[in-house]
Structures are given as C-alpha cells and as structure tokens.
C-alpha cells in the first residue's frame, strides 16, 4: 500500500478473511495505522485509525489484482500489483529465547546418559505421533480435500516430504536408542512398522485421490436415477431462479458468486419411500424446506444413488445443510468437485442453538437433540446477529432419511468484489 511515506505489502486473499487485523508504520510521523476488516449490511469495510485518533470506517473493494479503501473524507487508498510481498521479518528476541530454552533442555544430555535416553525416547514418541497424524490424517486429506492443479500437487508433495522426514527422524532415534538400551530385534520391528505404515498411507492416499478424480470426471447422467434437465425446459429455469435467489440473499457475505452450468434431476423410489416414512417419526409437523448440501463428487454420486448416511466424524453424527449454496460450495470446492445438491429437508421440530461448541462436538449434538429420546428433529445454528456463533445459518439432521436429494447442480465459481451484489 502506498499512502504518502507509508508502505506496506499485503496479500489480497488475506483481506477476504473476516476480522483480519493489520498494521502500518509511517516513518516520518511515527504513527501506527491499525485496522480490522469487518462487514455490515452494506458490504465489507475497514475500521482503522492512526495512532490515538478516533477510528473511522472505510469501504473496502477488492478485485483480482486490485484493492482500494475509500474513506469518508474522500481520500482513497489503492494498490494494483501482480506479486504480493508475503515476507514478514522474524522477531529476533523470540528466536534468541527459543534457542536459549533449547540449549538449557539439551545441555544435561552432555553429562548424563540416562537423561540422553529420556530425551531421545520423548523425541521418538513425539515423532511417532506426528508421523501417525501426517500419514493417516493429513495425507488422505490433501489427496481428497485439495483443489486440482499446482496447489493440490504442492500440498501432496509437501505431505510426502513431511512423512518421509518424520520417518527418517524416527529411524535415526530408534537406531540410537537400540544401540543404548533396546535389543536389536525390537529396534528392527519398530523400524519395519514405521516403514509399513508410511507405505500404507501412501497407497491409501493415492487410491483416494484416484477414486475422487474418477468420480469427478464421470457424467452424472450415468448415475442411477440422475437425468439432465434441458436448458429450454421450464423446470430448469425454475431451479436456476431458486438457486440464484438463495445466493443473492447472502451474496454480501462472500467474495465470490456461483453460476449454474447444468441441472440434473434425481429420482429414486426407495429414497422417496424412506423420506415419506420419516414423516411419521417427526416430533411436530413436517416443516419441509428446500436446502443445499455441498460434498465431493464421489459423495454426490453415493447420495444420489443411495441417499444420505450419518457421517461418523463430521459435526458429531449430524448432516449439515445450508440456506445458501454459497456456504455449501465452500465444502464442495475443497474437494475439487463442482456439484451442489438441492434437497427437500423435513426439519420437523427445529431447535435453535447459539453455542458453537454444541454444533461442533458429538456430546453437544447429542444433548441438543435430546440424547436417545430425541426431543427435536433438527438443529438451527444461529447467526451472530441472532445471538449465535455462525456467520450464516446452518441446519443439522441426525436422521438421514429426513433429507431427500431432488436436484444436482453443476456450478462454476466467479470472483466478485466484496460487497458487490448480483446484477
């Protein structure tokens, strides 16, 4: 940013994060500019001030390679740049303190053999835990929840290098401990287990990535019960209108928009029968609402064919839906897919939830739904304005039969300036 003698490099994508705090030092005046990115009903803005002056509100507008802040006085800060300076100098005091602490911890190893073995075992345990997390959590996540292209390949290579490095550290520590206190057989068994787990994680990650790529390359018309709706059909226009209306309602909250490419209808007699049977188990009324669900291509295929299933590790055991496709698209985009599901959801007796820990923990969800004897049929996560913890309302279901997928929409993401509405 060039504002008089004040110069500061910022990355545009960081500006799109709600609540970002940034600072800028002006050498001549010695004043420090502090600001925070926020939003209101009119769009995104920056609340900032120089030094001890009163904070003022400036409207924020961001394009693909440009950014500007317009202040109430008429002044405008602007920057146009292709390359963004992401480098930030390290705090030398923190580095020195970390080195001193590390030396104090390692120093007794020079004099005490038992202490060396203790430190080596602790490091071996930590390396093993990191290896397990990298191998069986991070690597499969990078293989299936990363966008295609250079960024996805970079994450994949980074995970392979990380697992290999941790494996090498484990091998070195295990060999050293084996020479001092372990038997050779035990050391060899440990190294064999670590090597085998690394190979298993690589095979699993590669298989998951290949399966996801194959599902995303398929034509949805090849899936059971999925039929493409022609562009000239009235049903196509109706679905697109509903989709765009749901996007327009929350467009000011997101720095991108969605464009409908294709619309497919989903018809499955088994799912319809299961959906109708679930109505008799609802606590109060049907309360059927059309909501959106984002997922990977393989999950979209499975849902279209066999319906929803309760996930084991997502929001406890709840299935999440959104009132806007923009929120659902954030889950889809992570997988590199391009589909959003439109579902008829029987909410029944909906219970409002304000605390974030209830929405994102198994115990909280079970307590909110009423435990074994379900007192409510669905949960509604409230927005900040309504006393909740979410930016956009979210719905959760425990019973998968309460949701019926009706349409599969292929969409395309388009970046827009923050605060810009759909024309």
From TrEMBL:
It comes from the Eukaryota. The keyword Membrane applies. The keyword Transmembrane applies. GO terms for molecular function: NAD+ poly-ADP-ribosyltransferase activity. Keywords: Membrane, Transmembrane, Transmembrane helix. InterPro entries: Poly(ADP-ribose)pol_cat_dom. The chain crosses the membrane at residues 98-116, 122-142, 154-179, 185-204. Residues 235-358 form the PARP catalytic domain. SUPFAM superfamilies: ADP-ribosylation (SSF56399). This is PARP catalytic domain-containing protein. It comes from Alexandrium andersonii.
């Amino acid at each position: 940013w060039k504002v008089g003698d004040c110069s500061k490099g910022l990355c545009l994508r960081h500006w799109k994060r709600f609540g970002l705090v940034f600072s800028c030092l002006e050498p001549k005046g010695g004043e420090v500019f502090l600001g925070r990115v926020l939003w209101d009903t009119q769009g995104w803005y920056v609340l900032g001030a120089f030094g001890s002056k009163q904070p003022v509100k400036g409207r924020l507008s961001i394009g693909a390679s440009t950014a500007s802040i317009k202040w109430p006085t008429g002044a405008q800060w602007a920057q146009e740049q292709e390359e963004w300076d992401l480098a930030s100098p390290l705090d030398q005091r923190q580095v020195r303190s970390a080195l001193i602490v590390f030396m104090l911890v390692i120093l007794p190893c020079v004099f005490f053999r038992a202490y060396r073995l203790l430190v080596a075992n602790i490091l071996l345990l930590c390396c093993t835990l990191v290896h397990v997390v990298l191998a069986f959590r991070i690597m499969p996540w990078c293989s299936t929840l990363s966008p295609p292209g250079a960024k996805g390949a970079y994450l994949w290579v980074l995970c392979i290098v990380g697992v290999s490095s941790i494996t090498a550290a484990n091998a070195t520590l295990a060999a050293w401990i084996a020479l001092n206190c372990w038997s050779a057989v035990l050391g060899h068994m440990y190294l064999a287990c670590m090597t085998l787990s690394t190979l298993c994680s690589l095979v699993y990650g590669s298989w998951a990535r290949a399966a996801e790529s194959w599902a995303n390359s398929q034509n949805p018309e090849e899936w059971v019960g999925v039929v493409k709706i022609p562009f000239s059909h009235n049903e196509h226009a109706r679905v697109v209108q509903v989709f765009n209306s749901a996007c327009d309602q929350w467009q000011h909250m997101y720095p991108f928009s969605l464009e409908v490419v294709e619309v497919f209808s989903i018809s499955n007699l088994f799912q319809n029968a299961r959906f109708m049977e679930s109505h008799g188990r609802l606590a109060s009324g049907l309360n059927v609402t059309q909501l959106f669900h984002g997922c990977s291509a393989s999950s979209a295929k499975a849902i279209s064919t066999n319906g929803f299933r309760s996930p084991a590790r997502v929001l406890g055991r709840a299935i999440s839906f959104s009132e806007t496709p923009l929120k659902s698209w954030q889950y889809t985009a992570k997988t590199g897919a391009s589909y959003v599901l439109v579902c008829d959801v029987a909410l029944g007796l909906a219970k409002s939830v304000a605390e974030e820990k209830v929405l994102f923990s198994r115990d909280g969800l079970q307590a909110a739904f009423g435990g074994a004897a379900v007192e409510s049929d669905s949960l509604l996560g409230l927005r900040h304005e309504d006393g909740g913890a979410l930016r956009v309302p979210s719905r959760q279901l425990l019973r998968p039969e309460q949701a019926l997928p009706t349409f599969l929409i292929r969409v395309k993401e388009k970046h827009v300036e923050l605060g810009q509405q759909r024309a």
